[in-house]
Amino acid sequence: MADETGKKKFSGWTIFSGYTDGFVFTAPVGSFDANDFGLFDMTGNVWEWCSDWKDAYSSGAQTNPTGPSSGSYRVLRGGSWYDAPQDCRVAYRSDFAPGFSYDFAGFRLARTK
Question: What is the pLDDT of residues 70-109, one digit of tens each?
Fold first, then answer.
């Protein structure tokens, strides 16, 4: 996420104060320790494309909601180096048209056992 490193280059950025990771933009994969689940780089490096189409979820409690089966915009999660700290969490969703590309959006390969 945006931090002191980025603020030095872009003085107008809203940042995570008191934190410097040494990277203005995207950090190389595995630059930081894994989280409690053993996963690396889950928040704040690049938004990660999800297979879900964007729409409102139902109001009841859910586990792994998937959204509609089709739509115009895909979900991205996790925030990026370009975002303020409050947007850098996996529960926060953004969306773009499937053909969108920019250096703050990426993807993660995953498999099930």
Answer: 999 999 988 888 887 788 887 888 999 999 998 889 887 7
Q: Give CA–CA dist 78/80, Å, rounded.
A: 7
**Beta carbons of 74 and 52 less than 8 angstroms apart:** yes
> Measured in whole angstroms, how far is the alpha carbon of residue 73 from the centre of its chain?
16
How is residue 54 annotated by DSSP?
A: P
What DSSP state is assigned to residue 16? B
DSSP strand pairing (93-96 vs 105-106): unpaired
Q: State the Cα–Cα distance between residues 77 and 91, nearest whole angstrom.
A: 7
Alpha-carbon distance of 5 to 8, in angstroms, equals 6
Tokens coding 106: 């990426």
What is the number of H-type helices and E-type strands within the chain? 1, 4
The DSSP secondary-structure symbol of 104 reads T
Q: Where are the beta strands (DSSP E) in the chain?
A: 47-53, 74-77, 93-96, 105-106
